[in-house]
Specification:
This protein is α/β, with parallel strands linked by helices. The chain is built from 15 helices and 9 strands. The radius of gyration is 19 Å and the shape is globular.
Length: 355
Amino acid sequence: MSANENPTAQPPSATYDSAFLKACRREPVPHTPVWFMRQAGRSLPEYRKVREGIPMLESCMRPELVTEITLQPVRRHNVDAAIYFSDIVVPLKAIGIDLDIKPGVGPVVEKPIRTRADLAQLRDLTPEDVSYVTEAIGLLTRELGATPLIGFAGAPFTLASYLVEGGPSRTYENAKAMMYGDPELWADLLDRLADITAAFLKVQIEAGASAVQLFDSWAGALSPADYTNSVMPASAKVFDAVAGYGVPRIHFGVGTGELLRLLGEAGADVVGVDWRVPLDEAARRVGPGKALQGNLDPTVLFAGTEAVEKKTREVLDTAADLEGHVFNLGHGVMPSTDPDALTRLVEYVHTQTAR
């Protein structure tokens, strides 16, 4: 089946009864599962060693290297899930967008999308465009065995923000100007990005990913009304496109406390929560029928073991009555984090929640 055809649910796999997938399905678990956003990356010396001299986008296109980097935190930390090593702009690069990831800056787009004519840059994504993803996930699933692999993609709003701004932004003035000033162009841009994103997630699922996460990293810049009217339809289109596979769908954004209910309503099975909202309050906002993921402040890991355990205990206590809980940080692992602190944190959560 190609990535553009209607999906069908997959039969149970070796990962089906893992703690991570059970928690996503809101089923009883042997312990609270743990994984970390950006668990594979600059916090690991072995990552810095294998990436030395290799540009970021190139590293995402080497299946053996992607496999090694994705496995590194699983070996070191004993996390309950791996997350595919890539970047949210990979599908844009794959369809020919002229962009690069500049060290210390982030993704930079050579020709930002500002007019309707600029939409011509966005063609459909095919599995052949990202054959290295299929190859890497095949290698990974053989190595991981019963450990689930999480696939991921950037959400249409976050991708649109990069494309319209031309790079990272703190104010999103160009993206919001389009959203407010030319809502038809904005809607068409997000709709095209939804199709590209859905195709990218389908490739990952069909290759063997056990769950997918949609990162809407910058959605916290939006009011609930703007999110509902101008962004949510595109994210919902992505989630709907992969619903038939039966894999858990996770939705995460930063600073999205006011949007948590909407993140779930867009089609997520699991709603990621940053550190600003306690999980019991997040559950109230999201409503029943969803698992939650989160939400230790990443900076706590710099405070020493006693403080980490205290703050982790607080997170676990607020999660005690949740229908399903996947322990994670409230955002990604920071580059200067001590890897041993992460290893100890995984062990602490497993020990404290053993049933």
